[in-house]
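Hi,

I'm pasting everything inline rather than attaching a file, because the server keeps stripping attachments. The sequence lines come first, and each chain or strand is labelled.
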Amino acid sequence: MERTEQEKIIVIPCSGIGKAFGSIAREATYELTENLRSKTTGTVCLALLVSGDEESLNLVRENKCITVDGCPLQCAEKNVRLAGGNFAGSFRVVDAFKENRHLKPKSVTFLDDDGQRLAKVLAEKMASKVDELLGGES
Amino acid sequence: MSEYLQTVFDKFELRVRKGCSYSRDGIWVRVEDDAVRIGLSDYLQRTSGDVAFVETVKEGLSVEREAEIGNMETAKAVLSLSSPISGTVVSVNSLLSDKPELVNSDPYGEGWLAILKPRDLENDLKTLMSAEDYFDFMLGMLRGGQGKLGSG
Amino acid sequence: MQLSEKKVGIISCRGEGCVEGTISRVATRLVLEKLPEKTVTICLPLFLAGGKEERAFARDYPTITVDGCEKLCAKIGTERYSGKPASSIVVTELARNWHCSKLNSRRKLDADSVAVAEKVAERIAEEVDEVLDRWR
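And the predicted assembly:
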């Protein structure tokens, strides 16, 4: 979990373990926070939020948050809202898949090429949202 | 009394709706006055995975029993859906174009696939299983390890 | 009606913030792939969000929690919502005991970290067998 020194958008993936889309949510978050918008985004473990970790809770309450979910159950969004996070937007991997039907991720444990590509596409969409939330700055 | 036959396998609760007939592929049929409504069974949606797209034939089209009436795409696969009866498609579920996840979340309710005016219902129903028989069939598939249930 | 053979539920943290979280996740996946007839994976976010099936399974079947670090999110969550796990594994503890040199890259595990994940998976598999033996 990164500390904030300036305004940052906190990105919380579901990281669901049973499906490729959960791995893609996780990978998209890394691509965004480590590569595309490393200075203006951070991430926090969903489980820490739910277990009541004070530092994590303060982070999501004091900064705008976007969630990334791997399935329609939307655990990340639900849990961030329940934690009283400053919810500012959500993404679903399935929506990126719908726009990129040629990408068919198969493996879950280690993402295959299609999984990596889909994660990158999703991360780019998330980057646009981050820019919008920060008022055009990146 | 529950309107479903139910079992739990691993962590998954699987339901078979009573009062419907079922094809071996897992398509349910429910007679509603002079029409039939069809959809995917709970077992079929579970083994298919999260639905991203559902496409059906157009309204007004005539289909034969076992002919393709649509297809469904999940992260795992593209699945061809066979009509369990012969007849004319009078209505398709337009909700599924924006919310295909209804097939997963409510397979016997809002996730229905199409409504048909049957051509030979009496004989077509004889080729299908009752809910009780489909339930036993499903248990056999689960015990035999066929069809991996989607995990969370 | 309950159909399953005896199985163990594996509840893993998947902490994005540290390499040990990724190792937890990968190790759990490896066990699931290797022992599908003995294990079920419980999705932690769904479990914590109130997933009925996840919680019911964890209540009725033995569980093994796999945590990346000493914050023990998986173990604490399981105890809070379903009951004490039959066994608890903490990756940072194992890495210390095995004298693993600094583990790198939470995003894409390097060869050393993959090797640690495989060792953790072996440990989980041993625990699975032990738990199932105790259960019989």
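The longest strand of chain A covers residues 86-92.

If the labels don't parse on your end, tell me and I'll reformat.
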